[in-house]
Amino acid sequence: MLHTVNKSPHDSSSLRTCLSLAKPGSDLLLIEDGVYGALSGSIHSDTIAERLNSVTIYALGPDLKARGISEDRLISGIKVTGYDGFVELASGNDKVQSWL
Amino acid sequence: MSETKKFMYVNRHAPYGTVYALEGLEVVLIGAAFEQDVSMAFIGDGVFQLKQGQDTADSDMKNFSPAYRALGDYEVNCLYVERESLEERGLNEDDLMPLTWEDEDDDWAEKKSIHIVSRAQLSDLLEEQDVILNF
Question: Strand, coil or helix: what is B96?
């Protein structure tokens, strides 16, 4: 299953709830303000990094760029993808769960 | 002339994901014409509004971050950023845009607009205001 999160982890429980319910082998794509969850060194970074061995986590490149977040500031192991990758993740998974 | 009041605009939202940041900035720039004592506070996700290097070329949105540089010309030259909010988000002062203003009472010296303050200091600043507007 593909999970998408579009809210900042500092402003909403979406990311925390998603990470607590996502099965191993799931994909998680951070989009819009959700990309703030990919920043290393934040109070949420450890919680997110802990799930990286079972959930593949992506952040949408154009949304990172808009917010001035360069790839070297991301939690190690988070992959950056573009709109084309978003489409591939959506079509490659049987379901999409959008955590709004 | 009416008495000058202390106005503080409190910004708590990240840019782009919602319209709060852009609307708030526009209200500050409009309000600056009324010659009040205006300051801005950035707390919580509001600190992301001042992040350096915003570039919306790939995402089809308006990059309004350069407009913060105009604040100094509108005599909005006190931008208080809460240190704890930066730290909780893995950011520090160097991540923020280098915003400045020119002090006409000091031979147009260029001065920093951004002041990093503690949560306790910000609490005191809020208490000093006559009017507080939240975005």
Answer: strand
